[in-house]
Amino acid sequence: MNDNCSICRDPVPSDDEFALYFINKFETEEREVTKETRCGVFGCYPPWLQILASKKSYVILFGLVGMNQLAIGSYAVATITTLEKRFKIPSQTSGIITGSWDFGTICSSITIAYIGSKGHKTRWVALGTLLVSVACYSQLLPYILFGPGSDAIAIAQSSNSTDKTSIASSCGMGALYSEDCYDGNTSSTPAILIFMSQFLLGVGVSMYWTLGIAYLDDNVRKNQTPWLIAISSTIRLFGSPIGFWVASKAVEFYVDPTLSPPITDKDPRWIGAWWMGWIPFGIIASIFSVLLSLFPRVLPRASQRLKEQARVEVKTEEKTGNNTFGGFCQMLKRLFRNRLLLCNTFSYVFYMFGVLFYYVYMPKYMESQFHMTASDANMITGNVGLISSAIGVIASGYVVSSFKPSARMITGCNFGVEALGVICMIVYAHLGCQGNNLHGQWAADGSWDLNQQCNSECNCGPSVPYEPVCDLTRSVTFFSPCHAGCSEVVFYEGVKMFKNCSCIPETFTAVDSFCPVDCQYDLIIFLVIFCIMSLLSSMSHSGLVIIQFRTVDPEDKSVSIALSEMMCSALAYIPAPIIYGYLIDKSCMVWGQTCGERGNCWLYFGETLRYYANYTSAGFLTVALVFDFGTWYYSKNLALYDEDCTEDTNHQLQGENNSKRKKQSLIQDEAL
């Protein structure tokens, strides 16, 4: 009987032989995927480079890339006021330019996320970072093509003895001021070039957000995701002060560094070197692009975990492998039916709409409300919330990873923070330099009339350049020496002064500057509240990122992030700067004019601007609270951590083990 039974001629496999069989099988599979888990490119995978194939290396590099991108965004925001003066564009137009970044995100995010999620994610992020570097270099084109501008050149060529600007803007000489209407100051071409560069930035950055963060979550344990995202986000936060610091230093240089103007950067006519910072940012982005392209498709440890979950992969293979238009539509259908995802997304949309005023126009707001220079406003804007935000992000990551609060606890805290934000916006509306010391009065059409009886003989036309002078005795500022009725300019110990001014008593003279205003108390309160809100907001919103990941299937993760970014861009990032720019323009007191066309705004009604901006922001934050409640309601029983599914996983593993035991038992029975 035994001779006729071939199976009996083989010994019964032992446990060690079974283990050896699976080890050999694992090693074979490991050799097959070595290429997917090693650092390198184009078939070159040197051993010394493999130290980068770890989650620690990626988290640091991911944070540094984000830091450079945030620095680029902060630099663009910080220099927008200088661009308005240089190319004579209103705030609403600059808002459209700012929104072009997000228009690029809308046009690319979902498509790139869907295609890139099936391929090498870090290579796609590297391509996006390369596009960012190209966009930085293209930002130099307006300066290369149009130069510093005729106004900047005219100021720089003037001397202390014969100040062309002062003479042209003196009483009786305003009508003789000539303008160069063939200069690129009022051309739409510079604005179009900047718009296209910002559009390209949006396309590049969208790959970072959709695929880069999905790669991180794919290659680490779910319990580690909050902590690692917090670390990379903290590194990224340093980009904001870097961007504003670089902008602050750049605008301290004259727009053309080869020129030596007689004015300083404290003069409102000063045009800084807005283009200078784009060069180093572009170089850094190019370097990061190369480093990102070297990362493997899957990190080695993550590859081992994926093999252990082979059964789950087989079950989801049919869903993830459907890389067709039909599969894409099915994925979108699943996402739009996810109520928790939609509530979380719309909450973020309206929250961002409410706070985008301070993200985009913070330097301008500081200049107009607290009478700061562009350089000082950029320095304060870049540093005021950094420490608070960094502490908030780190604390949030530590709390979520260590104490594992429930989804409802996270969403409930976010609701409370945004409710507090509404109150803070209302408080902001009453903080700022009070009063208006610009000489003039309201006109019948609602504008501010600078021409009064005392300067009626001076021919102060609309094209007279802005050159503020101050009557120190009454603390009254005049738009120009012409509007003060001054006919003589003198220099006393290097200080420009004006005499024979019909709007100033004979015994006094005017100095070349804006009258100083002391409102340091309001500034301190504003900054303290801003720091507190930065701390609380960074803590509350960090937890919402984890909810964004866990509320969708793993294969839908990249596209869900892209969908949220696209909706936020379409409904907040693009319209918000335009709307707030419109409100800023509505608050304008004095418009500049060039060649008969309205240019940039020189002075604003501080109180009107505060009310328009802050009450509008409070309104959108209130709408966000409604969706916050929906997020809290639908987040019940949402599993955020690996332990939430431990019981189900144990049942699955127990079933697999029982199946293996049955197979082994059958083999042994046949052997007997």
Distinctive features:
672 residues; three-stranded antiparallel β-sheet; two-stranded antiparallel ribbon; 62% helix; elongated
What can you see in these coordinates?
This protein is mainly alpha-helical and 672 residues long. The protein has helices at residues 6-9, 15-32, 55-78, 80-87, 91-116, 121-138, 141-146, 150-157, 164-168, 189-218, 225-237, 239-252, 278-293, 300-308, 310-320, 325-336, 339-370, 374-383, 386-403, 407-428, 520-550, 557-573, 575-586, 606-634, 646-671; strands at 441-442, 448-449, 469-471, 476-478, 486-492, 495-501, 510-511, 588-594, 597-604. Strands 5-6-7 form a three-stranded antiparallel sheet, with no helix packed on it. A two-stranded antiparallel sheet has the order 1-2. A hairpin with a 2-residue loop joins strand 8 (588-594) and strand 9. Helix 20 (407-428) packs antiparallel against helix 24. The protein is elongated. The protein starts with 5 loop residues before the first helix and ends with a helix.
Total helical segments: 25
* Ends apart, CA distance between termini: 11 Å
- Spans with pLDDT under 50 lasting ≥5 residues? 1-10, 29-33, 311-321, 645-672
Q: Work out the radius of gyration.
A: 31 Å
Mean pLDDT across residues? 77
Fraction of residues in H or I helices: 55-70%
Strand order of the largest sheet: 5-6-7
Q: Which descriptor suits the 3D outline? A: elongated
Strand content: 5-15%
Q: Which structural class should the secondary elements be placed in?
A: mainly alpha
Major sheet summary line: 3 strands, antiparallel
Count of distinct strands: 9
